[in-house]
Amino acid sequence: MRLPAVAIAAAFACGITLGLHPAVTPHVSSVSLLSSCFLCATVLILAGLALAKVGRLFPAAVVSLLSWALLGFLGACVAGQPHSPEHVASLLERGELPLGSPLRWHGRLRDEPAKLPWGYGLEVELAGVDFQGSFRPARGGLRVTFTPHEDEAPLPELHAGDEIAVLTDARLPQVFRDDGAFDRRAYLAHQNIDLVATLRAPELIERVAASPPTLATRLARLRKQLRQEIDALCGSSPQAAGVLRAMLLGDRSFVDRAESLDFQKTGAFHVLVVAGLHVAAIAALLFWAGKKLRLPRHWTMLITLSLLFAYVAIVEQRPPVLRAALMTAIVVLGGFFFRRLELLNSAAIAALALLVVKPLALRDSSFQLTFAAIGCIAGLAVPWLEKTTQPYVRALRGWRDVTRDAGHEPRAAQFRIDLRALAAWLSARMPARVANAGGNVLAGGLSLAFRVWELLVITLALQMALLPLMARDFHRITLAAPLVNLAAVPLIGVLVPLGFVTLIAGLAFPAAGKLLAAPLVWLTSLLVQVVEWFAHFPRWSYRIPEPPWWLVVLFFAACIAIAAGLRRKDSAGRIPVLGTSLNLTSLNLNSLIKTSFAHPVCHTAVIIMWLIFALLIALFPFHPRWSAGKLEVTVLDVGQGDSLFVVFPGGRTLLVDGGGAFGGFTGQEEHAGVDPGEEAVSPYLWSRGFQRLDVVALTHAHQDHLGGLTAILENFRVGKLWIGREVSSPALARLEELAGSRNIPIEHELKGKSFEWDGVTGEFLWPDKTSGNVTSAAKNDDSLILQLHYGKRSILLPGDAEKSSEREVLAENSEDALHSDVLKVGHHGSKNSTTPAFLAAVHPRVGVISVGDANPYGHPSPELLERLEAAGVRILRTDRNGAVHVLTDGQSLEITCFAACPEREGTATLARAEIGHQEQNGEKK
Questions:
Q1: Which run of H or of E encompasses 692?
Q2: Sign of torsion over alpha carbons 6, 12, 16, 17
Q3: Among 28, 345, 370, 791, which is least packed, fewest CB within 10 Å?
Q4: Angle 365-376/343-357 helices, nearest 10 degrees?
Q5: How far is it, in rounded angstroms, from Cα 689 to Cα 444?
Q6: Which of 80, 77, 70, 76 is nearest to 38 (CA)?
Q7: Could you tell me where the DSSP H helices lie in 250-275?
Q8: Element (H, E) at 196
Q9: Residue 423 burial (C-beta neighbours within 10 Å; 0-12, 13-18, 19+)
């Protein structure tokens, strides 16, 4: 077996996958069953050793792989066990530690207070909490942010390792309960952050005890010093400082959202994530320095490994850096022992080591992307280059030395002969003083061309092989990535080493640091400009839904088949090639492709199928999922905001509002908070396969309804934008400008207008026309009020309408006209909306409240909840039930929730056809 580590790592990963499967996990939590699994694995290992000892190698290999799979299964089951009883997650689950009010939390700072664009951030390793007059042990992580105001005292002097106490209202990280939504809570849990909080005043945090000097605290202070040094050296260019913070130290706090989006659009976001490329650049610099200093091999190895792992410690041992450093260490050690390690085996050893320590890392998309990238480089790009250009690259070394020709294969030897002949021909026609240089220029040009070609091949292989994962995790196709990375990768190879040399020089010799900072800032700005230039081509990057699982399986199966064919050797142990010589005139793409796929395993049909699968993923020609003949209304969970998705019986779509976070901090508006349009609404639509929206409607120009629509207009093809009253709002003006740039027509919908789609009638009950063209500012009573009628069923969507507009609607419509089976409760359940008279006229059976968990406004109002319960309305809330899905065929209603729909009075779920059944029997609620 040429790739034993790959087989072992694959078996271990398969076992983990089985252990993490939801259908298996609940049945393997008992200690006795886990002990039985361990015993079986031990027996299999002993059986494998016995078979190997008697020469039965194939059965031994099979039994060994089974044992590894069982160990992976066991590791996943153990890693999936619940938290300890003292962990905050366990305390909250048992209801022993209620949140929602300020508590005094105790713990130690994990790192130095981090400077943020809007203030400071602190990460606390919790030790306990004061609750009900006593100290209670509590484990976990707490992230605290603080935004200083004018004339406010600064934070007390705090350092990593300090024991602190902070009085704050901690809460669970925000999570959107919608299909496909980004799980921020799980993402932060992977970083050991269980709670988040905002510090209201610096007096509420106290330094209880200073930290003892340890290696960890010294590294934390060095990390802070390096960040400050970057800011000082790049004082004239904050943009370059933010990018360098990300590239060198993994701190993306000062890369604004628009800039980060440009890197995503161009497929160059890996530049801002400290990972394999950055670690490789540092290792290359250290090897080069060791060679120039003529250090012995063992000293070069020791220095390289020591500095690499020191770098890992400085950037906080983040998983991508750990993976890259482990891979580099394996390669360095292999080189020291004069072994040319197989890259796939090296990657498999690194993956196996990481999974043994942390089996749950397998489901981390970062882990999957890392090793899929290494696999495609080692399995596709490297073998293809080995069959095509690599012999010529090696032939350029010492090309003038005739005695070395015999050490190359025939085509490479012929290439050297042709090159010398061409160099002699050029030299004969050039002045004597530059005759020798002509050949060197020719060889250097060829070498550069080969290196550029190699980089392009590797980039293309990466983009192709990672296509399904990028579509699944980021819903983005970046056509410009190969071209952008042709510039970005060489720049990173220069910027990372130069950046650390500049930092070290700046700390030791400030004058030298400032001198080196000038080219560093210039090169960083050049990188940013290249990325921005390519990002401004709108058709070079687009968003798509997640591909079907079966298509991903077929894609990777074809990918593995191609890799196997590329690595296949003939009976003599050589990688098969076409021809025995290749001169300069025959070195073209056609011959390279034919050479690559000469073996039947890599038949052209497999390549064609692979390309077809890639096109299907990139184009997503599949129909979205919707219920034909039925009206669907989904109230999405977007936190404290509104967003509703309507699918009509014939498939037309209407999105009402997009949720929205606050607009950012004063002077730092680009550093806005969570964007529900990007993290909740768009993923939900993609999860159902939608790429186009017929209409996007904005009820009114408040941020919690409008903020997420920017992402919607950018991510989807939108037919029309509906708005109500035109108001003087910078946010609305920007949205209309974006719609104009995308040729999306804007229509104003006012009282009295209606439409009919697929048998559904929509009527706008509000707002009315204003005396002027534009009102001064957006108000809740500007909201569009839309009523949908389908058969015998009606659904009322009043936005944030309050008392005033409700009175106007009541005055102009009869109770029969307003009656609706489902009411999206106005203004998130505010007491100023859904007044008794309005509720009596609408007389809904179901009320859905779109509200944020633990919002600061007290929504929904207890007074409003009492009104709804007194009226016999079944209440559903997005903060508790997640997205609420209403489906009707015009006769009956079916209501489902992302989380379990409640069943008791005031919060009960409606079963399929329940309302229709009640009416047929004359029942009244």
A1: strand 692-698
A2: positive
A3: 791
A4: 170
A5: 50
A6: 70
A7: 257-265
A8: strand 195-198
A9: buried
Written as six digits, the tokens of 652 are 């037309």
Give the residue with greater pLDDT, 472 vs 854: 472
Count how many Cα atoms sit within 13 Å of the Cα of residue 795 in the half-sphere of its side chain.
Answer: 29
* pLDDT confidence tier of residue 603, bands split at 50, 70 and 90: low
pLDDT for residue 424: 85
Domain ranges in the chain are: 4-79, 88-212, 218-363+476-542, 371-474+547-621, 631-920
CATH class in words for 631-920: alpha beta
| Contact (Cβ atoms closer than 8 angstroms) between residue 463 and residue 481 | yes
Q: Are 732 and 703 in contact (CB under 8 A)?
A: no
CATH 2.40.50 is right for the domain spanning 88-212: yes
User: In angstroms, rounded to a whole number, what is the distance separating the alpha carbons of residues 316 and 249?
Assistant: 9
Q: What are phi and psi of 760, to 5 degrees?
A: -100, 130
Q: Is 747 helix (H, G, I), strand (E, B) or coil?
A: strand
Rounded CA separation 677/195 (Å): 23
- Determine the residue type at 118: W
Mean pLDDT of 598-627: 83
| Assigned token pair, 918 | 């009640």
Reduced to 3 states (helix: H, G, I; strand: E, B; else coil), residue 332 is helix
Percent share of the chain, pLDDT over 70: 89
Write the DSSP symbol of residue 699.
S
Phi, psi for residue 701 in degrees, rounded to 5: -90, 45
Beta-ladder partners of 786: 764, 797
Distance, CA of 106 to CA of 880 (rounded, Å): 29
Residue type, 34: L
Which helix (H) or strand (E) is 756 found in, with range?
strand 754-757
> CA 415, CA 399: separation in Å to the nearest integer?
9
Per-residue pLDDT of 737-775, as tens digits, reads 999 999 999 999 999 999 999 999 999 999 987 644 566
**How many whole angstroms separate alpha carbon 434 and alpha carbon 419?**
17
* Phi, psi (deg, nearest 5) at residue 635: -90, 110
CB 898 within 8 A of CB 638: no
Rounded to whole angstroms, the Cα distance separating 565 from 603 reads 8
How far is Cα 148 from Cα 155, in angstroms, rounded to an integer? 9
More confident residue, 21 or 811: 811
CB 821 within 8 A of CB 843: no
How much is the pLDDT for 32?
A: 61
Q: Are 108 and 79 spatial neighbours (Cβ–Cβ below 8 Å)?
A: no
pLDDT range class, residue 437, cuts 50, 70, 90: confident
First to last CA, the chain: 72
Q: Is the pLDDT of residue 517 over 90?
A: yes
Please state, in angstroms and rounded to a whole number, the distance separating the CA atoms of residues 827 and 700: 11
Q: Cα 79–84–88 angle (5° rounding)?
A: 115
Task: Round to whole Å and give the CA distance between 435 and 437.
Answer: 5
Q: Which pLDDT score, from 0 to 100, does residue 338 have? A: 57
For residue 30, the model assigns a pLDDT of 56
The answer to whether 279 and 320 are in contact (CB under 8 A) is no
CA distance readout (Å), 346 to 195, 324, 329, 757: 38, 11, 10, 59
Alpha helices by DSSP H, 21-133: 31-53, 57-79, 88-93
Q: How confident is the model at residue 34 (pLDDT cuts 50, 70, 90)?
A: low
- Strand-pairing partners, residue 139, are 87
Contact present, 670 and 256 (Cβ < 8 Å): yes
Position 319 pLDDT exceeds 60: yes
What pLDDT does residue 101 have?
85
Q: Which residue has the higher pLDDT, 344 or 142?
A: 142
pLDDT band at 601 (very low <50, low <70, confident <90, very high): very low
Q: What is the mean pLDDT of the chain?
A: 84
Tens-digit pLDDT profile for residues 345-397: 888 888 888 898 888 888 888 888 888 888 888 888 888 888 888 899 989 98
